[in-house]
Amino acid sequence: MSETWTFVCTTAELLPGEMKVAFDEVTGTPIAVFNLDGMFYALEDQCTHEDFELSAGHFDAASGQVECVLHGAKFDVREGTALCAPAYEPVAKFPVKVEDGAVFTRDDR
């Protein structure tokens, strides 16, 4: 578990409907950070169906879902919940904090 917060970007660099990937400074875990209507959410950047990065897929800000480009599995960016086959397991969700216009996340497992 990492106690160290990893800088992702400034809030101006991650507008509503956008996502960015950061790598946890301690664990090296790839983390996708989503701006959903001004709220920030972070998920492990790895589909639970097959080892493939979610950030390569489509983030649908209207529904709050990210779709894995490999086989079409969809996940709720707020909770990491798997929404359809072929994925059945949720994606790991990580904390996000915003301080002084900067977005941070960390692998808290």
Describe the structure.
- Pfam families: Rieske (PF00355).
- Keywords: 2Fe-2S, Iron, Iron-sulfur, Metal-binding.
- GO terms for molecular function: 2 iron, 2 sulfur cluster binding; metal ion binding.
- This is Non-heme iron oxygenase ferredoxin subunit.
- It is a single chain.
- With 109 residues, this protein is mostly beta strands.
- It is built from no helices and 10 strands.
- A 4-stranded antiparallel beta sheet has the order 2-3-4-8, with no helix packed on it. A 3-stranded antiparallel beta sheet has the order 1-10-9, with no helix packed on it. It has a 3-stranded antiparallel beta sheet with strand order 5-6-7, with no helix packed on it.
- The protein is globular.
- The chain has a single domain (6-105), classed as 3-layer Sandwich (Rieske Iron-sulfur Protein).
- The mean pLDDT is 96.
Question: How many individual helices?
Answer: 0
CATH superfamily: Rieske [2Fe-2S] iron-sulphur domain
CATH class: Mainly Beta
Counting structural domains, the number is 1
Structural class: mainly beta
**β-sheet strand percentage:** 35-45%
Unreliable residue runs: none
Largest sheet: 4 strands, antiparallel
* Overall body shape: globular
* Average pLDDT level: 96
Domain Rieske: 6-105
Keywords: 2Fe-2S, Iron, Iron-sulfur, Metal-binding
Protein name: Non-heme iron oxygenase ferredoxin subunit
Organism: Thermomonas fusca
Secondary structure elements and their pairing?
Blueprint lengths: L5 E5 L8 E5 L6 E7 L2 E6 L13 E3 L4 E3 L6 E3 L16 E2 L1 E4 L2 E4 L4
Antiparallel strand pairs: 1-10, 2-3, 3-4, 4-8, 5-6, 6-7, 9-10
